[in-house]
Each structure stands twice: as C-alpha cells, then as structure tokens.
Specification:
This protein has a 7-stranded parallel beta sheet, with helices on both faces. The radius of gyration is 22 Å and the shape is globular. The protein has 17 helices and 13 strands. α1 packs across α17, α4 packs parallel to α5 and α13 packs across α16. The protein is α/β, with parallel strands linked by helices and 421 residues long. The protein is 43% helix and 13% strand.
Length: 421
C-alpha cells in the first residue's frame, strides 16, 4: 500500500485550534445536485470559522470562492455535457486509471467514485502532511480507505445510494433495463465496504442515518447527524415581486424516478380545469421519460423548463411562485424544500425520506408517489391563499432558526475533533 504520511498526533485535535482540512469531492456541480451545494457552502462556512480548507475535486469546476484553494484532479471527464462519452486518445489511455475509467463507462458503469479515490490518494501521497483531517463527500472509494489508514478521515454520506437503485429498478419492467441499472450502481458494494471501515461518518438527517445503518451495516455509534444549512444570503424573500396565482415551481436537477417529477406531472394533469403553470427549474433529458409523459398527458402548454439559470433568476422564480412542490420519493435531506422555505414560498412536500425533518409543521406533507394527494394539496392551498401565506412565513422562520451553514460547520468541526482526539 502507498505510504502517505505518518498519522497526526493527538495534539492536532486540541480544542479551539484552527484545523487544516482537506475536502474531497468527486463530482460537485454547484448548479446541479446537493453534493455540489454542500461542498460550496460547507467550505465557505469552515473558512469563516477560521479553519484552513483546501478542496480536491473532480469535474466540473465547483466554483468556490477565490480564497479557497481547489486542486482539480485530471481525469477523462466522460460525462462532460459539452462532449459526452468522447473517445479518449491513445496517450490518455496509457494511464491506468484513465483506462479503468473509460472501460467502466464503456460497459455502462459509473467508475468515477472509484477512480477519483485513487487519484486523491496519489495527490495526498505528495501533500498529505499539511492536513489535519480529510473529509470525503460521498466518494467512499477504496482509495479513501487507504487514505484513512494514514490521515484521520471522516466521510459525509447524504443517503445510501441503495435507495436510488431500489427506486430505479422498481420504475422499469424490462429485464435488460434492470441489468443496466444494476451495472450503473455496481459501485455500491465498494461504498458499503469502505463506510464500514471508517471511524466516523457524518450524515444529514436521522432518516439517512437509519437507512445507512440498515443498508451499509454500519454501527449507529459511528454516526454524527449534522443537518445541512441553507444559503440564506442567496435564498431569501424578494420584496416588490408579486406571486402569480396558479404558478407552481419545482427543482428537478435529475431526470430520475427518485425525484418524483413523474407524479407531480400526473397531479397537474388531474387539475386540468384549473389555470396552472408548472415551472421546472432544470433541463429534461432529451426524449426521456419526463418529456414522453408530458406529451402523453397533453400538458405541454402548462409546463415550462427553465434550463440552467443564474442565481438571481432562480430567486426571481421563487418570488413569483404561489407554491413550491417537492415531489421526491426519497431525500436524504431535501435542499429544495429548505431553499423554497428560505424564500418564503409555501411548500408542499412528500414524506419521502428526511423531508419531514426539514419541513416540520411549516408545510403541507403528503405521501410519496401519490399524484392524487399532490393534486388535492395544490388545489387546497390555491383555494386558501391566507393559509398558504402562513405556511410560507412559518417555513421562512424555521430555516432561520434551524438550518444555517454556520451551525452546520460548527457541528462538523466538532465531529472532526472527536476523530482527532
């Protein structure tokens, strides 16, 4: 096994002393998916607490603040939207990890967590001595396992990917499609084995902790539950912008069954006699399941996809919306719910995963995968705007009270110090 550096002494965990932290994140798009949002905001909050943070990242550029160093590990980046599934050059394939990455993608797998971990190990062989602790953002690679034997290491698991696999398998009937999903998620076994080898795991909700314990067989005492924060500097009510009656908003960063957009579209179809407009913040997969369902239901004139938009436009969309709907079948935390609440938008959410822990009594909760319940909730709140406004105000106050990145960073540092001691 490669040698990185001697294990730090206990003095590195001295209470109150600023820490030198290495954050690992294999794919952290700041505009798409919770992992990128987590990396961007946690790194900022840790630095604001006085700690030194460096980020080791895979593609795309995480777009962190200029005072946070980012080490971008070279890779093939075969999922680059500008040139997806490109054919690497022979010179690129001479590097063993590039070859593994290309073969994995060519056989319908997802090798990035595996290859990123080994690249991170190579990086820390050269630079590991300057860090007190390594914090992995759910790559859970065998490379991380090797790192943890030389440098104190914790990992955040947002939720067990076994849930994604189960929902994906249930959503298709064809046997070959099930095999395709099994192949794509074949990295799960690695993640479970590595999770069991780590001394401490951070997760973002009690629900996620229970599910990871069950699916990855990790003892409960190794977990520290640290809820995510919401960027209240970005997500906030926008004075002077009127909410438009019948305007719904949903964030859908991935065209997958897990996010439940299929059920919300069916709910909109059930409300065909009402003047509704559904704004989907995101881009659908070309000729994918969502596009086909919209066409089949005949609701194309009531649904609009924004594509990628600026933060400023995102906030304007929230300000114009009468209701925000979070139709997810499962969430390990549920950032879209918290972001909508921070903007004062009345929220309708399913009870999938940890969403009730985020929404609490400040929103309307319905069972997951239930278009009829979604339709009833939407109709009721549109018919009772005063009740909807009260929920919006309650949601805003709940976020300010419970979910800030400053608080999340403090609790994360406490977990670091436990490991170091």
């Amino acid at each position: 096994m490669p040698v990185i550096s001697p294990k730090p002494t206990k003095s590195r965990g001295s209470p109150g002393r600023p820490l030198s932290i290495c954050l690992l994140s294999y794919r952290s798009n700041p505009h798409c998916g919770g992992q990128g949002v987590y990396l961007k905001n946690l790194s900022r909050a840790l630095v604001d607490l006085g700690h030194r943070v460096e980020v080791v990242s895979g593609p795309p550029d995480p777009q962190l603040d200029p005072d946070i160093p980012v080490h971008r590990l070279p890779c093939l980046d075969l999922y680059d939207p500008a040139d997806p599934f490109r054919v690497p050059t022979l010179a690129e394939l001479r590097q063993p990890l590039n070859l593994v990455e290309w073969l994995g993608v060519s056989t319908m797998g997802f090798p990035e967590p595996f290859t990123f971990g080994w690249r991170a190990l190579n990086f820390l062989q050269r630079h590991g001595r300057r860090f007190d602790i390594v914090h992995d953002n759910q790559s859970l690679s065998y490379g991380l396992w090797a790192i943890s034997r030389r440098i104190p290491t914790v990992a955040t698991i947002h939720h067990p990917i076994t849930v994604d696999l189960d929902i994906a398998l249930a959503a298709v009937r064809a046997f070959w499609k099930k095999l395709k999903h099994l192949r794509w998620y074949s990295f799960i076994g690695m993640q479970a084995r590595v999770a069991r080898a780590l001394p401490a795991i951070i997760t973002v909700s009690d629900c996620a902790r229970r599910d990871i314990c069950r699916d990855f067989k990790v003892p409960a005492e190794r977990f520290r539950v640290v809820p995510n924060g919401i960027d209240t500097g970005l997500f906030h009510p926008l004075p002077g912008v009127a909410r438009e009656p019948g305007r719904l908003i949903v964030t859908n960063s991935a065209d997958t069954p897990l996010k439940g957009l299929y059920y919300l579209l069916q709910a909109v179809h059930r409300l065909e006699n009402r003047p509704l407009k559904l704004v989907v913040v995101g881009t659908p997969k070309e000729n994918g399941g969502v596009v086909k369902l919209i066409r089949r239901l005949g609701i194309g004139d009531r649904v609009r996809f924004t594509g990628r938009i600026s933060n400023e436009e995102f906030i304007r969309q929230y300000a114009r919306a009468s209701l925000a709907v979070i139709p997810s079948v499962y969430e390990g935390f549920g950032l879209p719910a918290g972001e909508a609440m921070a903007c004062g938008v009345p929220v309708i959410s399913t009870t999938g995963g940890a969403l009730p822990e985020v929404v609490g009594d400040a929103g309307w909760l319905v069972p997951p995968a239930d278009p009829e319940a979604l339709a009833k909730a939407i109709a009721t709140l549109l018919d009772h705007p005063q009740h909807a406004a009260a929920l919006g105000q309650a949601g805003f106050q709940r976020v300010q009270r419970e979910f800030t990145w400053h608080r999340a960073a403090q609790r994360t540092v406490a977990a670091y110090r436990e490991v170091l001691e």
